[in-house]
Amino acid sequence: MSAGSIPCASRQAVLVDLRRFELRDFTPPHPGPGEILLQVKCALSCGTDLKFYRRGHPLFKFPMPFGHEFSGVVAEVGCGVENFRPGDELMAAPTAPCGACFFCRRGQENLCVQVIDTMVMGAYADFLLLPAHVVARNAFRKPPGLPFEEAALLEPLACVVHAQAIAAPQSFESCLILGAGAFGLLHALLLRHTGVRRVVIAGRGATRLRWAAELGADEVIDIARADVAQQVATLNGGYGPDLVIEATGQVSGWDSALLCARRGGRVIFFGGCAAGTTVQLDTRRMHYDSLTLLAPFHFRPADVRRARDLLAQRQLGAERIINGHRRLSDLPEVFDLLERGEVLKCAITP
Ligand SMILES: [Zn+2]
Ligand SMILES: [Zn+2]
Q1: N vs C: which end of the chain shows fewer Cβ within 10 Å?
Q2: Average pLDDT over residues 99-118
């Protein structure tokens, strides 16, 4: 069941060591039962990729293909695939839960025992093989009017949707986001779409803060120049923010989130920190100020479907998160731009 256009050789970016790529020739495999071979049309850079690039990952060994935010066209389908045909435009999350383990049976599919181990990597390539569990649970026909690069936002948006589903922001609430990177700004766009009273973004770097303001933050705070906790204490008539979303993945951000939330407020620890790091809790503040601390990780299929619907409606303005465009052969430059904070997300096309 081939589209008839699969070259016998194609390219795949491989991280061969810390900070070192190779663009290797590889022969795309024929899909097995339930699998799909996808011709990649767009892959997006992600902060997680930058972590791999800088410090590797305990679950993945070099040399490793990488890139996990993608969209494309179905090139070939394995036997038993009934929802897709060659030529279909497709968007998918890079993971899917097993549906049967302890966590899945309790509706916590984001914690499924296989969800990260079986993650699809290798979207910085001409072709990408999608495993059967992803095809069955987290792959969708791309709406015709949705550009490939926006469709590739499915995974990061699903993470954000999951976190906000847990936090349940209300229309009368004032929210603080710590971190003006791609995730911080996606959170801001979703909060705006939900319709909260006020969105404040605290971050670093004049360019990023300008992007945050352009994206619709009511107020931006430069954490290099101002004491965030002091500045946001005036929100809500002097009570402070109802909801604080930590999106820096730094211990300093976690500490700051704990200081900033109002009495009775909620903190979402969204950004994962380096292994081995810890934060201290002021027990008096936790208990007597009755803080609710939440640390959502990854997403469930319901979050992926909601993210797909949001992207299909095109009312978030999510395309504004993608402010760089490069070719696959320019990948080293993409990572230089990411490291210098000169791009939020870069769309990489073959
Ligand atoms: Zn990602
Ligand atoms: Zn499971």
Answers
A1: N
A2: 95
